[in-house]
Automatic annotation (TrEMBL):
InterPro entries: ABC_BtuC-like, ABC_transptr_permease_BtuC. GO terms for cellular component: plasma membrane. Belongs to the binding-protein-dependent transport system permease family. FecCD subfamily. It is found in: Cell membrane. Coiled coil: none annotated. The chain crosses the membrane at residues 12-36, 74-91, 103-123, 130-151, 163-184, 205-225, 252-281, 293-315, 321-339. This is Iron complex transport system permease protein. The keyword Transport applies. One of its GO terms (molecular function) is transmembrane transporter activity. It is a multi-pass membrane protein. It comes from the Bacteria. It comes from Anaeromicropila populeti. Keywords: Cell membrane, Membrane, Transmembrane, Transmembrane helix, Transport.
Length: 349
């Protein structure tokens, strides 16, 4: 009973921390807003609470700042952190590799290549609120996953070694292509470089809706196969002996996870360490069972990303620090600490 309870006890506190992070982040910025004012503005948009909250004393400009500018960015950051963390947890279990992260299949390099081509081509159009860079990044990520998938397949099987090696090879090739393109376009180097460091400055409600659909659907699909991931973690032979179709499970999870990463990267740029560090931290609290690990990781990733983005947009105001820099600075020391803490233990932590 204690093992079943472990992990569940952290869901409510994490949800409270997430809500608190959203409200606090909405109150921070150049405008002089209190946490209470931000809470009132946010609560006023919730149908059930709308008639109970009085916002007449809050200037209209503050309402616009919180709801039209800050909230889309906060939710955008939270959804990205949730998506990348869930994929990180799934890949670490699926590949039985504690160092696996959401970008292991070359998705980030594909998105970066697509974004680079869009920036250097000078093409300009908008589709449902998405600029050409985001569209090209999404298509580049999907095309990369398709290539990696097709090369890695051996008949109906999808060997882990094949997909890891293919992802690394394709990623290296695309990185070289980006470097080559930047060599011939010196004036665009800074723009490409900043995109690869990640940012939520272009957040909008349309992008929030777009990302919500991908995060919700893909996370549900991955969660459905939580128990199968637990068994696969013990070895493919064991899983197959118990009647689990490991090849089918791998394909479904890889496709779902890749779509989720492609959606996140295409609208935010490349943000590292979130999908690597957050699952490790949550696993210490919840244990290795994916039925608890995946939802907790999603919430933890959202909290971590909101925290990092708040620092990114306020620490050097009016300038903005790329959020990928913040995640790396916070994630790297803690990850080194985890490695040192567990270097003598031959366990999956």
């Amino acid at each position: 009973m204690k093992k079943e309870k472990k992990g569940n006890q952290y869901i409510f506190p994490l949800v409270i921390i997430l809500l608190f992070s959203v409200v606090c982040s909405a109150s921070l910025g150049s405008a002089n807003l209190t946490v209470l004012d931000s809470l009132k503005i946010i609560a006023d948009r919730i149908p059930v609470l709308k008639n109970l909250i009085k916002t007449e004393m809050i200037p209209e400009v503050y309402t616009r700042i919180v709801w039209d500018i800050r909230m889309p960015r906060i939710l955008f950051a939270g959804l990205t952190g949730c998506g990348l963390s869930v994929v990180g947890a799934a890949f670490q279990g699926l590949f039985r590799n504690p160092l696996a992260d959401p970008h292991i299949l070359g998705v980030s390099s594909g998105a970066a290549a697509g974004a680079t081509i869009a920036m250097l081509s000078g093409i300009g159009f908008t589709i449902m609120g998405f600029g050409v860079i985001g569209v090209f990044a999404f298509l580049g990520a999907l095309l990369t996953v398709l290539i990696v998938y097709r090369i890695s397949c051996v008949g109906n099987k999808l060997p882990v070694v094949n997909i890891l090696l293919t992802g690394t090879a394709i990623s290296t090739m695309l990185s070289s292509l980006i470097s080559l393109l930047m060599t011939f376009h010196h004036n665009q180097i800074e723009k490409v470089y900043l995109w690869t460091l990640g940012s939520f400055s272009a957040a909008s409600w349309s992008k929030v809706v777009f990302l919500t659909i991908f995060v919700f659907v893909c996370t549900i699909v991955i969660f459905i196969f939580s128990k199968e991931l637990d068994v696969i973690l013990t070895g493919n032979e064991t899983a197959e002996s118990l009647g689990i179709d490991t090849a089918k499970i791998k394909k479904i999870i890889i496709v779902s996870a890749s779509l989720l990463v492609a959606a996140c990267v295409s609208v935010s740029g490349i943000i590292g360490f979130v999908g690597l560090v957050v699952p490790h931290c949550i696993r210490i609290l919840s244990g290795p069972k994916h039925q608890k690990l995946i939802p907790l990781t999603g919430i933890g990733g959202a909290v971590f990303m909101i925290f990092c983005d708040t620092i990114a947009r306020t620490a050097a105001a009016p300038s903005e620090i790329p959020v990928g820099v913040i995640t790396a600075m916070l994630g790297t020391p803690y990850f080194i600490y985890l490695l040192q803490r567990n270097k003598r233990k031959q366990v999956f932590v």
